[in-house]
Amino acid sequence: MTEKNTPEVILPPFRGDKLLSPAGVPKLLSTGSATGNPRNKCALQPGHSLMDWIRLGNSGVDLSGTCGRIVPVSKEELARHNKRDDAWMAIRGKVYNVTRYMDFHPGGVDELMRGVGRDATKLFDEVHAWVNYQQLLNKCLIGPLKIIVKPDAEIFKSIKTETNKVTIPNTNIANIEIIPRIDWIQKQSDITFYIYTRQFCNPGLVLKYINEKEFRLLVQIEHTKHCIELQLQSEVRWPPKACKLSSETGKIEICFEKVQEMKLWNSYGAHTLIRVLPTDDAEEYNVFKFEIKTNTDFNLDSFEMILRGSQDDTLFLLPLGYHVNISTDINGEPVERSYTPIPQNFLSKTLNTNNSSLNEMNLNFLIKNYKANGLLSEHMQQLNVGSHLLLSVPRGNFKLQHLLRHKRFTFLAAGSGLTPFLSIIQHLLKRFENKIEYLRLIYFNKTEADIWCRNALTDLQVQDERFHLTNILSQI
User: Fold this and answer.
1) Is 24 contained in some domain?
2) Cα–Cα distance between 193 and 241 in angstroms, integer?
3) Furthest-apart CA pair in the chain: how many Å?
């Protein structure tokens, strides 16, 4: 191991919501298409598949036409490149040269030409907002779209200038609510549901099993939960084959294995969408019973605990930076505290199963036992496997989009305060949009024995040169 990949250890000097009525909310039936979406696709010519496009991008051909330079583009310049053989397009503030992509576009040349020479963000979102266009067109990037804002006399009449500094008064911008949208595709053996929200809105999911044909999905976006009651045409197996959440794209993917294989459905069934306010106090939407699957000591004052739905009937995917409240009765009194689950790879001990779908249903905790005043933590450390705890829906107010503009990070964590950072660190190192350049974690503890997840963090530093770990100790 090189010195670069060895974590620093700095020692001190030696010293001694209310449920709204679903009335009027129609059940949304399948369109009958395999995707639930009537968009058309065109047959591509031989040699113009997705893999052919990827090979072209990796061949060294200059697809952007800028020889690798990033060139800012004005709206006027963008508008001049509006022809079949000279086609530029802007999506979310970035301009791409899509001339060579024309014959590779599944929707056909005419469909792509609708967005050429202009900002096509709205058009793109209307047709296929879930597509990872950044990865598809990254070799076509020309540069940022230059936006010149002309101040409105009424809004900016109170602008004050002083030594070239401009103070712009706050304007009232209404928050637009994000309504989840559901789509689906199927194979003969399985069916996959996609729930689309919005890029970097940091959604969460609670998936509740009712029976082989009925499921409840709570899609959480900030403080609002959107309940999707899903009724399937035929039976599927539980747990799902896969359940994934992309915090970057805002897409949730749930794949079920069909009970009757080798059979295509003519419809997925139906679903009802209900908006659940944060003030809702209905227990079925806010509190879930979980069972302890493992409970093992980590060090002298900490323990690892893995929880799963008490009947293997509940799956949690938390938004990044969020926590859950764990509660139980102690001596006849309810006691509740907040804890942040951690990714499975940061545990020193994992549940002994090779079933990835079962592992996805686990919530993993690393908890410090505050014996002096930690009534709940001390009680939980003594609980046996099979005991039950109550968990709340995910809670928090972390704004993931606030990190998007930054490429270099330094995080400060101390003791058990490390847990909220672990999933965020993983996200940033994998982030595709505005890839980060550097991430440093400065981690404070009393002694080396108190350092949590040391091996996993050291391995992460070896695997990714952008990550650097510094351990600072207050005692020898």
Assistant:
1) no
2) 12
3) 77
